[in-house]
Design a protein that fits this description.
globular; Ubiquitin-like (UB roll); two-stranded antiparallel sheet; mainly beta; about 100 residues
């Protein structure tokens, strides 16, 4: 199956495959989805940067071990083995701020 990109970008929730911790939220377009499936590493789409591979500059890549789609095919779950922190701040997860 493939996500429904007919309305543009789809959210991609990234989860540590071993711990279940939610690491980050990003967005994917068709090209990012294709590159992720072809390479086995996480690729995303940003309005600022366009297509980008997670960890290409920091070395904190993410090996994708499983992909899942939600019931409406408009959201992606990537279960990954991270090579380092997910957040650009150096935190393991981008979700470290209390609400």
């Amino acid at each position: 199956m493939t996500p429904d990109f007919s309305k543009g970008l789809v959210p991609a929730v990234v989860q540590d495959a071993d711990t279940g911790q939610v690491l980050m939220l990003a967005f994917m377009d068709e090209e990012a989805w294709r590159k992720t499936r072809e390479t086995g590493t996480a690729w995303f789409h940003s309005r600022d940067r366009g297509l980008w591979e997670k960890g290409a500059t920091s070395g904190n890549t993410m090996v994708v071990v499983e992909t899942r789609l939600d019931c409406d095919l408009d959201s992606v779950l990537l279960r990954v083995h991270p090579a380092g922190p997910a957040c650009h701040t150096g935190e393991q997860s981008c979700f470290f701020n209390p609400a």
